Every structure is written in structure tokens, then in C-alpha cells.
């Protein structure tokens, strides 16, 4: 067995590998960029080595520096995690030449499966179902149009070396194809250094279901069930679960057997994932094989009881798999939600900054949090904006969903925008609850983006009662400490008005043992809690039922967060509430004559000049953020009066780029 493992990665996956290595009694080495000097994975590892400046091309992607770190620390193996160098055959080959073990598959498998065109050819030869398409290299836009017309729209354009949702476009017609081919090629070149594109038939109402495989150097290959990864936004996974609510046992076994056949064809030795696209009739087609650990591997670990990182380490150390296919049993249900630093109410724009407050839910047998940060950490512009992966488990799918809802309520993050409201909304969406999901679901259900109105609270009385509790608790404390004269004690009144959502809700509040009784609309709500002033989580009971609500006090406003819904509430005396209703509403500034940057990023292209007349839908500028090209287009016909930024500028959110007449 290895004595010391270097993890050639960062963030939550580096922390994840360190935990398993520690459990196995193996020393670990972290590598880090200058931006990550205070990162959690650096703190957790036994040793840490600085490998360069923040940009990945100068640090985490520099093979020579990582290999030198192995030599300097005496690491005899490298775990690549996912992303970065995890699927670079040259990295695997370079490590082998230095006598350092690569905890992953061999060079042949990485090369064969790393190229989407080659992998499809091999899959066909291995008897695996494949999507109709053109797997040869596409020369130019005219060639792309010809191929798309032959296949028949809609088609999907993909970067041959792609992954992570980058370098992908759907084309519904010739115009989409011409524009998409250019964008996809640019993204492929920028993200992967390889601008080859291929085109295949786009399957409508598709599901993205993947099979986890595990192979050793003795020719043994097993599959560990499937993961449903259909809930995606812009081709990036949001929610994953295992098993799939859609597959039957016959389809599961057929997909598993094909995944094993493909793995055997390339002598696969490690944990890997074979991804399929599945239509409404359970016909399935090979998409690609990821020759690494997947982000969503924890859901498989929950339902199989296996530690996939441990299995990878043992296989790389030359051990034989300790179980057969017949011994693989799936038990229960697991769901993973990806918590990102992004603002779902601003079209999911990336958010960067410091985590002023970070309180993940308590881990236990049904809740797991995989994270690479801590309170005070900084979400950098240089790396993926993932904050954590939240995983819950239950004996049934309904139980796993219930645990996820509760855990999201407790996940407290401040300092950066986050997507917990969106995740909570998905958990209670009818299509998700009933398992009627597809890769198109988010686009179909939220065609105009995600808004606060998409997560109305289904029990406003709960929020009103808790707000009343909070306000009365503050007033009672103030009455006790304000320095009163005997016989002239301050009396806190019982009648108040809760202002929420622009509406006034009269309540009557009476002290009770352990809390307060709140009368609202003729109903009595017994709110009981040991909540302490300033604590961000209100835990207690409402009429005997346990509740957990995130709370903040901002001057006169109580901000409450529960089940993805956020409400800003004021509790006023009846007289003040009456006057409040007469207060004028301040109109927001008119920014309609400006093109504002919707995200932090690099302005790579300005498509207009001063004095130019532009039409609605015309391209104005291109911003690159997280290696994705984002085209900004005109909302209306207008004339450019000023250019306020230049290509090459780093833009902040809402920074003005163009002013119109």
C-alpha cells in the first residue's frame, strides 16, 4: 500500500480524498496556488507545496511542478480528483516514467475515452448503443451546416475534448448552427486547447443517466448501479440522485452490462463513469466515458456502502476487487445538491467574495457535506464557484427529499450570493417530486429565469408567527434592561402588525412557557424555542412540529429564510403600521439607456462603435466568465452614444459598458 499520496487538486475533492487517505493510514500532500494558501485542503493535509500563481494554467495544470512536488515530498502516488489533470493521459504517462503511481486508469483508457470522437467509435465496436451523428472532425461552418442538415435538426454541437458543460450548443436551425459552431469552437479552444467539434442528434425530452463502473488490474469489472443526473442548467448538473426514479431493473442491467463491456474494451482499471442519454421509452445511447471520479460519486457511496476513493487507491496499489457483481446491493436512496456561489435571482451570475458566515448543516447518518471551505474563506474568480455538495440519504426517495429540505433550511451562508433558494424550489417542484424530470426541465419550468415569486411560502402563518416571536423577544429583553423605576415598569403591548409582502397581518402575542402564543386570523400558534439573540438559526416548534428558519435582524427588518423562500418582515405597532401605509415608494433609477455587465468577467469583444444604430437582438459585446463566452445582445433598437469599457477590461457586476441615446 502507498505510504504518501499527493492530491493534484483543490477544494472539496482534495478534502474528500484526504479524509479517505487518513482513514487508511496514508499520509497526504496538498498542492496549492497563491490564491489557495489559506484553503481548507492545505490545512487538512500532512504537507503542502506551493505550485504557482492563481491562474490554473500557471499552477494546477502545470504537470512539471506537481511531479516535482512528489519528488520533494516523497509521495509515491497521485490522486488527480476531477477536472484539472485528471483526464490528461500525458500526466499519467509522465508519472509512470518517474515511478509514481497514478490513482486512476491507465494511459490507453484515458486516451481512448478522453476523445469523444474516438470513444464513440470504440463504443460502437464494443456493442454499445450510440447516438446518431457525425464523429469525424468538422472543417468549418459550411461543413457543420451540411452535417446538421443531413442528421436533421435539432442537433447538439460538442467539443471533442469537452466536459463540465463547456463547449456545447443546441442548434434548432441553420442560424443557430452557424452561430453556435463559432461559439462552441471558441469555448473549446479557450477551455481545452482543442477546437475540434462534433455534431450528433439532439434527443428531445432526454434523461441523463450514468453508470458507475469499477475495474481492477486482474480483469474484473463491475457496475455499481446508476445515477440520475437529468436536472441540469446549461448542461451543468444541479441535482443528482441514485438510483434513478425512471429505470426498471431490466434497463438498469442492460445499461450496466454495456458500461462493463466498454470498460473491458479499454482494459479499464479504476473508478469510472459511463454516461448515457435515455429517451422517454427507456431507449439509451452512449454519450461519453469519464475516466475519473465524478463530482456526484457520494450518492453511489450512500446506496452501495462503498468508499469509491478507497477502491481507487486499492486498485492503483495492485489489489483485486474484494467483491463480485452479484455481491453489489443497492439500498435506499441518496440525493446530492450542488451549492454554488451564484445568484439565481440574477440569472445565476457567479458571485465572488469572502464567506462572512458559513454554517453547513450538521453531518449525521443521513446528511453529508463535502466542502473545501470554511467561514472566512474566499470564493475566487479563478476557480469553480462550488461552495459545497450537500448529500442526503433515506430509506425511500421521499425520505431523502425530506432530509434534503431540512438540510437546506439549515445551510447558512452570508457574504456571497448562493443558489440554496433555487435548490429548495426544485426539491418541492411537482415534476421533481414525481420523478418526471429531463435535462430540459429547468429551461422549461423557468424560461424567464428564476425569481422570488417562484418560491412562495406554502405556510405564511409560520413566518408571521416566528417574526412575532422574534420581535416580542427583543422587546421583552429591552424592557428588562432599560433601567426602570419600581412601580413604573415598561409594559410591552400584545397587539402588533406584521408587515410582509406589502400586506399587513394583525397578530396578538401572549407570553407562554418556553415561548409565545401568537393569535393570527383566529388561529392560535404555539411557538416554542430556546433561540438566543444574534443566532442565525431559529430552531424550535410550531404547534409541536419541529421547525428551523434562518433569521437576520437588520434595523427594523427581520429577514427570514425557509424552504427556499425569503421574506423581509417588519413588526409594527398598529399606529405605526397605519402611518407606514402612507409612506411613498422610492422609484429605482432608470438604467434602461445603459448596457450593464451582468456578471464579473473579462470583456473579450465589443461589437459596436459610437454613433452606430443597433437593432433588437443584435450582438453588442462578449464577456468571458468561468471560461464560458456570454453574448450580450440589444433588448431594443437604439443608437450608441458612448463606449464606457474596452476589450481586455475586467468588469464588475452592473458595470456600465455602453450608453445609448
The gist of it:
This protein has 17 helices and 39 strands.
Describe this structure as you would to a colleague.
An 8-stranded antiparallel β-sheet has the order 14-13-10-11-12-15-22-20. Strands 24-25-26-27-28-29-30-31 form an 8-stranded antiparallel beta barrel, surrounded by 4 helices. A 5-stranded parallel β-sheet has the order 3-2-1-4-5. Helix 4 (89-97) runs antiparallel to helix 5 and helix 12 (397-410) runs antiparallel to helix 13. A hairpin with a 5-residue loop joins strand 16 (342-343) and strand 17 (349-350). It has 17 helices and 39 strands. The chain is 27% helix and 33% strand. The longest helix is centred in the C-terminal third of the chain and has 22 residues, at 460-481. It has 661 residues and is α+β, with helices and mostly antiparallel strands. The model has no long low-confidence stretch (mean pLDDT 93).
Helix/strand layout:
Blueprint: E1 4-7, H1 11-23, E2 27-33, H2 40-44, E3 47-52, H3 63-73, E4 77-79, H4 89-97, E5 101-102, H5 107-114, H6 116-125, E6 133-134, H7 141-151, E7 155-163, E8 166-171, H8 174-192, E9 197-201, E10 207-215, E11 221-233, E12 236-242, H9 249-265, E13 271-278, E14 284-290, H10 297-304, H11 308-316, E15 333-340, E16 342-343, E17 349-350, E18 353-354, E19 357-359, E20 367-371, E21 378-379, E22 386-394, H12 397-410, E23 412-414, H13 420-427, H14 430-433, H15 441-445, H16 460-481, E24 495-500, E25 503-512, E26 515-520, E27 523-529, E28 537-542, E29 545-554, E30 557-562, E31 565-572, H17 574-580, E32 594-596, E33 601-606, E34 613-614, E35 619-625, E36 628-633, E37 638-643, E38 650-651, E39 656-660
Parallel strand pairs: 1-2, 1-4, 2-3, 4-5
Antiparallel strand pairs: 6-9, 7-8, 7-9, 10-11, 10-13, 11-12, 12-15, 13-14, 15-22, 16-17, 18-21, 19-23, 20-22, 24-25, 24-31, 25-26, 26-27, 27-28, 28-29, 29-30, 30-31, 32-39, 33-35, 33-38, 34-37, 35-36, 37-39
Amino acid at each position: 500500500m502507498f505510504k504518501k499520496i499527493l492530491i493534484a487538486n483543490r477544494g472539496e475533492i482534495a478534502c474528500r480524498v484526504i479524509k479517505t487517505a487518513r482513514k487508511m493510514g496514508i499520509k497526504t500532500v496538498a498542492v496549492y496556488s497563491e490564491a489557495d494558501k489559506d484553503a481548507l485542503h492545505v490545512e487538512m493535509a500532512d504537507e503542502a507545496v506551493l505550485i504557482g500563481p492563481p491562474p490554473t494554467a500557471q499552477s494546477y495544470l502545470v504537470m512539471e511542478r506537481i511531479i516535482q512536488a512528489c519528488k520533494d515530498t516523497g509521495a509515491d502516488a497521485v490522486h488527480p480528483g476531477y477536472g484539472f489533470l485528471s483526464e490528461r493521459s500525458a500526466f499519467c504517462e509522465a508519472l509512470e516514467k518517474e515511478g509514481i503511481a497514478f490513482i486512476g486508469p491507465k494511459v490507453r483508457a484515458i486516451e481512448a475515452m478522453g476523445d469523444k470522437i474516438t470513444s464513440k467509435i470504440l463504443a460502437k465496436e464494443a456493442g454499445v448503443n450510440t447516438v446518431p451523428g457525425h464523429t469525424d472532425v468538422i472543417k468549418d461552418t459550411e461543413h457543420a451546416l451540411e452535417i446538421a442538415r443531413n442528421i436533421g435538426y435539432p442537433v447538439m454541437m460538442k467539443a471533442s475534448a469537452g466536459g463540465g458543460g463547456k463547449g456545447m450548443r443546441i442548434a434548432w436551425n441553420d442560424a443557430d448552427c452557424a452561430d453556435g459552431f463559432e461559439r462552441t469552437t471558441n469555448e473549446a479552444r479557450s477551455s481545452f486547447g482543442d477546437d475540434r467539434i462534433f455534431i450528433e442528434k439532439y434527443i428531445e425530452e432526454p434523461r441523463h443517466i450514468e453508470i458507475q463502473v469499477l475495474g481492477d488490474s486482474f480483469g474484473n469489472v463491475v457496475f455499481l448501479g446508476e445515477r440520475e443526473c437529468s436536472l441540469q442548467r446549461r448542461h451543468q448538473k444541479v441535482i443528482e440522485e441514485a438510483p434513478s426514479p425512471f429505470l426498471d431493473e431490466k434497463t438498469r442491467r442492460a445499461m450496466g452490462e454495456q458500461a462493463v463491456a466498454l470498460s473491458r474494451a479499454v482494459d479499464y482499471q479504476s473508478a469510472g463513469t459511463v454516461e448515457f442519454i435515455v429517451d422517454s421509452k427507456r431507449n439509451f445511447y452512449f454519450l461519453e466515458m469519464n475516466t475519473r471520479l465524478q463530482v456526484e460519486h457520494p450518492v453511489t457511496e450512500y446506496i452501495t456502502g462503498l468508499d469509491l476513493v478507497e477502491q481507487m487507491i486499492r486498485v492503483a496499489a495492485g489489489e483485486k476487487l474484494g467483491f463480485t457483481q452479484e455481491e453489489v446491493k443497492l439500498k435506499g436512496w441518496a440525493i446530492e445538491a450542488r451549492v454554488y456561489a451564484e445568484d439565481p435571482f440574477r440569472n445565476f451570475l457567479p458571485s465572488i467574495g469572502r464567506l462572512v458566515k458559513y454554517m453547513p448543516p450538521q453531518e449525521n447518518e443521513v446528511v453529508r457535506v463535502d466542502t473545501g471551505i470554511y467561514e472566512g474563506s474566499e470564493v475566487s474568480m479563478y476557480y469553480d464557484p462550488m461552495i459545497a455538495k450537500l448529500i442526503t440519504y433515506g430509506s425511500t426517495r421521499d425520505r431523502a427529499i425530506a432530509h434534503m429540505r431540512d438540510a437546506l433550511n439549515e445551510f447558512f451562508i452570508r457574504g456571497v450570493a448562493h443558489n440554496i433558494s433555487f435548490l429548495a424550489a426544485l426539491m418541492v417542484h411537482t415534476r421533481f417530486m414525481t420523478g418526471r424530470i429531463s435535462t430540459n426541465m429547468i429551461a422549461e419550468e423557468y424560461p424567464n429565469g428564476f425569481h422570488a415569486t417562484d418560491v412562495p411560502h406554502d405556510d405564511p402563518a409560520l413566518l408571521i408567527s416566528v417574526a412575532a416571536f422574534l420581535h416580542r423577544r427583543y422587546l421583552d429583553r429591552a424592557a428588562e434592561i432599560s433601567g426602570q423605576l419600581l412601580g413604573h415598569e415598561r409594559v410591552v403591548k400584545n397587539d402588533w402588525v406584521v408587515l410582509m409582502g406589502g400586506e399587513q397581518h394583525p397578530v396578538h402575542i401572549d407570553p407562554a412557557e418556553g415561548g409565545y402564543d401568537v393569535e393570527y386570523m383566529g388561529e392560535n400558534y404555539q411557538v416554542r424555542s430556546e433561540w438566543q439573540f444574534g443566532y442565525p438559526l431559529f430552531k424550535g416548534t410550531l404547534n409541536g412540529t419541529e421547525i428551523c428558519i434562518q433569521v437576520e435582524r437588520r434595523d427594523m427588518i427581520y429577514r427570514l429564510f425557509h424552504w427556499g423562500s425569503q421574506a423581509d418582515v417588519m413588526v409594527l405597532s398598529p399606529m405605526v403600521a397605519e402611518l407606514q401605509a402612507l409612506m411613498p415608494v422610492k422609484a429605482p433609477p432608470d438604467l434602461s439607456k445603459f448596457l450593464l455587465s451582468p456578471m464579473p468577467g473579462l470583456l473579450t469583444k465589443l461589437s459596436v462603435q459610437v454613433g452606430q444604430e443597433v437593432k433588437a437582438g443584435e450582438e453588442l459585446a462578449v464577456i468571458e466568465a468561468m471560461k464560458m463566452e456570454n453574448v450580450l445582445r440589444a433588448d431594443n433598437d437604439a443608437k450608441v452614444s458612448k463606449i464606457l469599457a474596452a476589450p481586455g477590461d475586467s468588469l464588475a457586476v452592473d458595470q456600465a459598458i455602453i450608453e445609448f441615446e
